[in-house]
Amino acid sequence: MSLWSRMANVVRGERLNREIDEELESHIEEAIANGRDPVKARKAFGSPMRHREESRDFRVIRWIDALRADVVFGWRQISKTKITSAAAILSLALGIGACTAAFRLIDALLLRPLPVANADRLHVIVFEGTGPNAKMTYDSCSYPMFRQMRSDVKEQAELIAVSYADRLDLTYGSDQEMEKEYVQFVSGWMFGAFGVKPAVGRLFSADDDGKPGAHAYAVLSHDYWTRRFGKDPAAVGRTVRIGETPYQIIGVAEKRFTGTETGTSTGIFLPMAMKNPRTLESWNNFWMRTFIQLKPGVAVEPVEERLRATFHAIQEERVKTFLTLTPQQKELFFKEKLLVDTAAAGRSNLQRDYKRPLGILAVLVGLVLLIVCANVASLMTAQAAARAREMALRVSIGAGRWRLVQLVLVESALRAFLAAIAGGLFAWWAAPFVAGMINPPDDPARLSLPADWRVLGFVVLLSAGVTLLFGLVPALRASAVKPASALKGGDNPVVRGRLMHALIAVQVAFCFLVLFVAGLFATTFDRLTHETTGFSADRVLNFETVTHQPQPPAFWEQVEEHLREVPGVESVAMTTWPLMSGESWVGEMSIGGAAPGDVLSDLLAVSPGWMEEMKIPFLDGRDFRREEVYPNVAIVNQAFANQFFRGENPVGKTFEKVDSPEERSRFEIVGYVKDARSRDNLRFPIRPTVYVPFRAVDAAGTPQMRGRGTFVVRTSSENPLALASLLRQEVTRARPEFYVNNIRTQAAINLARTFRERLLAVLGLFFAGVALVLGGVGVYGVLHYSVLQRKREIGIRMAVGAQAGVIVRLVSMDVFLMVAIGAVVGLALGLVSGRFIKSMFYQVKATDWMMMAFPWAMMLVTALAAAVVPVVRAVQIDPVEMLRAE
User: Fold this and answer.
1) Cα 469 to the chain's mean position, in Å?
2) Pick from 179, 156, 190, 167: nearest CA to 273
3) Span 757-766, mean pLDDT?
4) CB–CB of 680/582 below 8 Å?
C-alpha cells in the first residue's frame, strides 16, 4: 500500500474499520462457502480484534494514527473541563500574544533587513567620543569628510551619503497651501547601489549628483505617492517647491523602499548636490550619515582600518580651524574614534532611543509568559494527579512511558495551539497600538509590521517551547505513575504537592521581579513628569512661522500686535523656537576678557514680555525694551550666574560671547531670572542660559532680517487648540508673507520629552498587573488543590479537637513559605537586573526601600486575598461527614 494511502487512512477511522471488518467477514464467509462449519471456521480464524489491529497497522502509519487518537482524546479532555481549560488558554494567549507583539516591534525596528540588494553587506560609519556628561556615540559627518573617505576606500566599498530625514515645508502651489513631508538628500548612485527600481518614471543616477545646484529633481516614495496623489502617474513631471527651490518630480521608487531611516517613511528624495552650497563645503557641519556597501568578498575590518586612518588625517586638519580650543578639549577631540557598525536593518534615532526599552519590554513579557507557564503547569499537575488511576490502568494494559508522555503533551499542544491563535489576534492589535505610543500622534512612527513567515515562525517556535515548558513536567509525572499504588489510592498528597509548591515559588519570583522593575519605571516617569521646568506651559500655543523671504523685525512686531487683538488671546510674545523643542543655539562666554571656559551656554532670542508670558520670574533687573537689540544687552539665568559669577547678582555686569578668536560680542546684563529649561532632556541639569533681544543688528547697525520665528500665545481658554485655526489665519491676514508651518501646545512639547518613559511605565504596570493576577490565581489553585487532597486529614484533625487556627496553618503554611522564598529570589533578581538598566532610571535606585517594599506589599496582599476562599472552605469542613465517608 502506498505511503499516501496509509496517510489518508489515518483520517478515515470508522470507514477503515468497516472495510477491515467487511474483509475479515468475507474471508470467513468464503470458508463457510467452501463447506466448513461456521463455528469451526470462526474458531480457526482466530480473534477478529487481533486481525483487525494487525490489518489496521498495515494500512496506516502507526505513529500518526496514535497521534490522531491522542488529539481526539485531548480535545475531549479539554471539552470536559471547559472553565479551567478556558482560563489556561486565555492566560497562555495573553503571554504568547504579548511575546509575539514584542517580537513584531523588535523585528520591525531592529532586526528586519532593509528591502535593498545585499543588505547583509550594508554598514554605517559611527563616531565615539566623550561628551559633557558621558561617552557619546553619533553617526553624522560633513560632506567633505564623506567625499574624502569615499575616495580612499573606493576599491573596497561604495560609500553612500544620506541626510537625516527632516520634516520640511513644501508646496505644489502657493505659500498658503504648505504641507509637511519627510525629505532626504541622498547620493545620486544610492538607488542603483541598493537595487531599487522605479515604479513610475526614473530614479537618480550619479550624473544627477554632480554639479551643485544643477539638477533640481525629486523622486517620490511609493508610500507618499499613494497617500498624496492616489497613485496618479501624472504626478511625475509636476513641480514641488521646498524652501526657495522648485524641484521637478522625475519618478517614483518601488513600493518596498521607504528610505534608510527605520521608523520613518521618507516621502521625497533629493540629490545630495542640491543641498545648500555652504553646507556642502563645510567640514564642521555634521548633517548626514555615511553608509558603506562592501564589495563582494571584502571584509569589513580592512575597510574600517583604512577609514580610521582617513578620519585621523581629517581631524588633524580640522583642529587647525579651532583656534580657541583648550589643551583638554584638543585631547578629547583626538580621542574620538571612527567605528563601522552594521546597518542591515537601516539606521535611525528611533533605533538608538528604543533599542534598550524594547529589549526590556521583551524581558518583561517573557517573564509574564513564564508565570503563565508555571500557572498552567500547576493546573495540569493537579489534573495529572486526578487522572492517576486512568494512567495506572493504561500502564496495566501495556502502555509504555513514552506513550503516556505523548498523550499528555498532545493535550498541552492543543491548548498551546488554541492559545497561539488567540494570542496572534492579540498581537495583531497590540503591536500597532504600542508603536503608536512611541512618537507624538501628529508624527507617528512608521514601522512595517507584516504577519509574514518571520512572525509565523516565531509563533510556531514559541508555541512549541511553551508546550514543553508547561506540559513536560506534568507529562513526565503522569508517565511515572505506579499502577499498584495509584489503584489503591495513590501516594501521599503532601508528596504530590511538592512540585506545585515549587511552581508557586517560581511564579512569585518572576511576579516579584516584574513588579519591582515596573515600579522603578513608573517612579522614573512620575519624577520626570513632575520635574520642574521653570516656566508655565498652561494654555500656551506656539505658532512656528516662516516667511518666503526674510522680513524686517518691524513686520514680525506688526503680526505680534495684530494677534494681541484677537478675542481669547491673553498675551503674545516672540522667540526663535519653543522651549524644550529640541533646537538650540550655543556659544562660548568670556568674563573680563579671559579665554572662554569649557562650559557652553545656551542662547535664546526673545521679545519684550516673553518672560512674563512664560511665567519666568525676575530675581533682579528688568525686561528688554522694544528698542534694545542683539548684541548689546542680555538677561541671564541662575545657572549662568553660578557658573560665571560664583552665584553673585550679575545685573549690571558684562560678558563677551566669543564668535571667533578675532570677533567677540559684548553684552551688558540687564536682567536676572530663575532657571527655566530650554533643552529637551529632562535628565540633565538646566544649563547656563543667555536671553537676547529678538531684534538684531549687524556690525554696521543695520537691522537683520528674520525668516523664521515663533509666536508664543497664551490664551484665556483652557483648551488653547480651540483658537489654533483662527490664529493661523490671522497671522497670514496681518502679513501675507508669513505662514504658520507648525502649531504645538507647550504642554504637548513637554509631554513629548517623556514618551519613552511613559511607554515603559504604562506597559510595565500593565504586565505587573497581569503577573499579579496570575500569581494570585496560582496561589489560589494550589491552596484549593491542597484542601481537596487533604479533606479527610483535615476532617480527622478537627474531629480530635484541632482548632481553626491549626487548620489554617496546616493548609497555608507551606504555600506561604513558598511565597516568601519566591519573593526573596525575586528581590535578588531585581537588584541584579537593576544594575544593568540603572541608566533608564531617574532619581530612583533599585536599593530604595520604597521600591523594595512595593512588590513585597503587593505580593502579600495578593497571596492573602487568594488564600481566603480555600482557607474558609478548609475551616468549614464537617468532621462528622468526613468520618461517615470513611
Assistant:
1) 26
2) 190
3) 92
4) yes
Segments of 643-688 assigned E as strands: 654-660, 663-673
pLDDT (tens digit, 9 = 90+) per residue, 459-512? 999 998 888 888 777 777 666 666 655 555 555 444 456 777 888 899 999 999
CA distance 306 to 311: 9
* Residue 444 burial (10 A CB sphere; 0-12, 13-18, 19+): middle
* 508 contacts: CB under 8 Å, gap ≥ 6: 775, 818, 819, 821, 822, 823, 826, 859, 863
Bridge partners, 703 (sequence order): 697
Ranges 59-73, 139-153, 543-557, 747-761: which has the least confidence: 59-73
Q: Confirm if 248 and 239 have CB atoms less than 8 A apart.
A: yes
Q: Is 790 exposed, middle or buried (0-12, 13-18, 19+ CB in 10 A)?
A: buried
CA gap 493, 467 in Å, rounded: 26
Task: Give me the helix-helix angle, 82-106 and 62-80, nearest 10°.
Answer: 110
Q: Do 552 and 703 meet the contact criterion of CB atoms below 8 Å apart?
A: yes
Burial 529-544 (b: 16+ CB within 10 A, else e): eeeebbbebebbbbbb
Q: Indicate the helix (H) or strand (E) that contains 485.
A: helix 483-488
Residues 6+ positions from 610 with CB-CB distance below 8 Å: 573, 574, 575, 691, 712
> What's CA 457's distance to the chain center, in Å?
21
- Cross-strand partners of 137: 128
Q: Which three cell numbers stand for residue 201?
A: 518614471
- CB–CB of 357/764 below 8 Å? no
pLDDT of residue 438: 83
Block residue for cell numbers 489518508: 8
Cβ–Cβ under 8 Å, residues 332 and 72: no
The tens digit of pLDDT for each residue in 297-333 reads 999 999 999 999 999 999 998 888 887 777 887 888 8
Closest CA to 574 of 602, 614, 547: 614
Nine-digit cell string for 590:
568670556
Do 804 and 797 touch, CB atoms closer than 8 A? no
- Dihedral Cα 484, 486, 487, 493, nearest 10 deg: 130
Torsion of CA 880, 883, 885, 886, to 10 degrees: 180
Phi, psi for residue 391 in degrees, rounded to 5: -65, -35
**Mapping DSSP to helix (H, G, I), strand (E, B) and coil, where does residue 489 land?**
coil
Query: Nearest CA to 752 among 616, 610, 604, 582?
Result: 582
Q: HSE on the CB side for 69, CA within 13 Å?
A: 14
Per residue in 74-93, pLDDT tens? 788 888 878 778 888 888 89
| Max Cα distance, the chain (Å) | 133
Full-model pTM: 0.82
Residue 289 has pLDDT above 50, yes or no: yes
Q: DSSP letters of 498-542?
A: HHHHHHHHHHHHHHHHHHHHHHHHHHHHHHHHTS--SS--TTEEE
